[in-house]
Amino acid sequence: MTPPPKKVVQAHAGGEIDVTFFVPCLNEEARVVPTLETVRASMAGSPFAYEVIVVDDGSTDRTAAVVDDYRATNPLLPVLLRRNPSNLGLARSFVDAAFLGRGRHFRLICGDNIEPPESMAAVMAHLGQADIVIPYYPEVPGKSRSRLLVSGVFTKLVNLVSGYRLRYYNGNPLYVRQQVMRWAPHNYGFGYQADLLTQLMDQGATYVEVAIAGMHRQKGGGSSVRARNILSVAHSLLEIALRRLRRILFHRQAAPADENNKRDGIGR
Length: 268
Known about the structure:
This protein has one domain (19-256): Alpha-Beta Complex (Spore Coat Polysaccharide Biosynthesis Protein SpsA, Chain A), CATH 3.90.550. The strands form 2 sheets. A 5-stranded mixed beta sheet has the order 3-2-1-4-6, with helices on both faces. A two-stranded parallel ribbon has the order 5-7. It is α/β, with parallel strands linked by helices and 268 residues long. The protein starts with 18 loop residues before the first strand and ends in an 18-residue tail after the last helix. Residues 1-14, 221-225 and 259-268 have low confidence and may be disordered. α1 (32-43) crosses α4 (117-124) and α7 runs parallel beside α8. The protein has helices spanning 32-43, 63-73, 90-100, 117-124, 145-162, 177-182, 192-202, 223-250, and strands at 19-25, 50-56, 79-83, 105-108, 132-136, 174-176, 207-211. The longest helix has 28 residues, at 223-250. The radius of gyration is 18 Å and the shape is globular. β1, α1 (32-43) and β2 (50-56) form a beta-alpha-beta unit.
């Protein structure tokens, strides 16, 4: 049954909020406002109340000032701004934003405006059908063959060590926010989404996969960053493999991550 329409609930006001959108930014002064406008367009006419938490993760440009200006000119929109004192990284900001939010559900929206409103709306259309709505991208315009290869290998490795069969692990799923807080990933590196997803599925969370359109925006990064990513991925894969081994050795049965949100037979 489609829920009744709700008015947009301001982030500082009382009332029920269906979803918290987390928008991480690192030097995104030119793209953060288009991102916020995309969120607004995707939620226009939606029956769901929402809030947006923008996290400026140590930007050296005018990202925070641009967001403040946007909030001043759009006072009725539910946008909050948090400034990290230094660059804490995406995964750390993701977990912190989950604790800051008040929505029942929680989703990351990249601050460089790479997801069109139609894709966001497609994900939101499945809210409540399962504990996790997992998007994947049949095509990713702008992504090089080498990065597509790396992404495909990563997905295959996670499936191999976890025993699951997801199409994609880094597509910014729609979560139940309390489950993110309860099962926050141990690894704050590149593989944190795979770590969180497999932990939730280990706990019996249900999921549905949704094909959406997206695009890739190339950003700079040195060899040291790539080295850290490799170490982070290795750490995540080891954690996932050890959890699976414990399940096998001790015959642990998956328990519902949240009995109030379990949906039988979806994505399992």
